[in-house]
Design brief:
Elements lengths: L3 E2 L1 H9 L5 E4 L3 H6 L6 E2 L18 E4 L4 H14 L4 E4 L2 H8 L8
């Protein structure tokens, strides 16, 4: 089973001062439309050649629209690069918008 984190849990942990690297694996057009503040865009298709941008010194939360592409990114980074500090945002930015921050647009 791949490790995941609910939007509510992520928000609570952020409120407690925990730091994360937020990596959004959606496409640029999606990212331009809405995003979680502080997230960094690395589209899923670019991930194999941009893995050096993934932090190894803190938890990394992978984000997409509904959690499917970010789950694929997590599996790739775990299996190909041995990263163990990864979390998938369960339900993606859609769930974040509905559960945590209604200011983030839903699409």
């Amino acid at each position: 089973m791949l490790p995941d984190l609910t939007p509510t849990d992520l928000h609570a942990r952020q409120q407690r001062g925990e730091t994360f690297q937020l990596i959004d694996v959606r496409e640029p057009m999606e990212y331009d439309y809405c995003r979680i503040e502080g997230s960094h865009l690395i589209p899923l298709g670019e991930l194999p050649r941009r893995t050096e941008e993934i932090a190894t010194d803190r938890p990394v939360v992978l984000i997409c629209h509904h959690g499917v592409r970010s789950m694929q990114a997590l599996a790739f980074l775990q299996h190909r690069h041995g990263l163990t500090n990864l979390l998938n945002l369960k339900g993606g930015i859609d769930a974040w918008s509905r559960e945590v921050d209604p200011e983030v647009a839903v699409y």
